[in-house]
Design goal:
The complex is a heterodimer of chains A (115) and B (141). By secondary structure, chain A is of the alpha/beta class. Helix content of chain A is 37%, strand content 17%. Chain A has a 5-stranded mixed beta sheet with strand order 1-5-4-3-2, sandwiched between helices. Chain B has one domain: Histidine kinase-like ATPase, C-terminal domain (Heat Shock Protein 90, 2-Layer Sandwich). In chain B, helix 2 runs antiparallel to helix 5.
């Protein structure tokens, strides 16, 4: 699905890099623990997380991710938005909690891309 | 192309905003060289974990990247407190990270295991009170 569709499903707001919202994504990874993302993520283009700090953006960069979805209404700081913009990563904020955000996207066809 | 490119970075201690910038720079360089994306990512993950460790535990240090056509050698050197028991530190889940670091999404005790997992060679030399040197060798496919 397109990033814009994922944002819509989650009633989310796209916070930056709207120009890339039509990019196609097929797999996602949900975690608040960045070390686990680094340990287990494979080719998931979307990171769903409740953690909100600059290291989330860095982690996504290391994993070549295209989009970060912040759950539970978390709003990244201007500093984080700047980091994401420079790297072309779409940031989305959704009021949904982790479990329901993952469930909604999974039901809509996004896969986990791992075990 | 030259036989080897040498890159050097100063890594600031306790700076959780800039943490990862040295790794990003190396990653960009490798990508630009046309190294296969899987290998670029392996280098990036292992180095990033090491860089974060220096920021968290060692009050910063230096990161060096020696890039050859067929491999990349990352060397991370700090003069921090050192690792008392390397075997223990390598156990997944073992961590001495502070709550502040855990709040950043790290401190799960996956740093050294991740380095070992993603690099082809991971050599950790450490002396308590003196510092730590980590060498990460990644061979390109």
């Amino acid at each position: 699905m397109k990033i814009s569709e994922a944002a819509k499903i989650l009633e989310g707001t796209i916070l930056c890099c709207e120009e890339f919202q039509d990019k196609e994504v097929t797999a996602a990874c949900g975690s608040d623990m960045m070390s686990d993302v680094l340990a287990y993520a494979k080719d998931q283009a979307v990171l769903i997380t409740g953690l909100c700090n600059p290291q989330v953006i860095r982690t996504a960069v290391m994993m070549d991710m295209l989009c970060i979805i912040f759950v539970r209404g978390k709003k990244p700081t201007d500093e984080m938005i700047e980091l994401a913009k420079e790297r072309g990563i779409v940031l989305v904020s959704t009021p949904r909690r982790m479990f329901s955000a993952c469930g909604k996207l999974y039901s809509a066809g996004l896969v986990s891309g791992g075990y | 192309m030259q036989d080897c490119v040498h890159l050097e970075y100063r890594v600031d201690g306790q700076n959780f905003v800039s943490a990862g910038s040295a790794t990003e720079s190396v990653k960009t360089f490798l990508k630009g060289m046309g190294v296969n994306p899987q290998d670029v990512r392996r280098v990036a993950i292992a180095m990033y974990e090491g860089e974060i460790n220096m920021v968290i535990h060692a009050n910063g240090g230096y990161a060096y990247a020696d890039i050859y056509v067929d491999k990349c050698i990352i060397t991370l050197v700090d003069t921090g407190k050192g690792i008392k028991d390397i075997d223990l530190a390598l156990q997944p889940g073992y961590s001495t990270a502070s709550d502040e670091v855990r709040a950043l999404g790290f401190g799960a005790g996956m740093g050294l295991p991740n380095m070992k997992k993603y690099a082809d060679e991971c050599i950790i030399e450490s002396e308590v009170g003196k510092g730590t040197k980590v060498t990460l060798v990644t061979r390109f496919d």
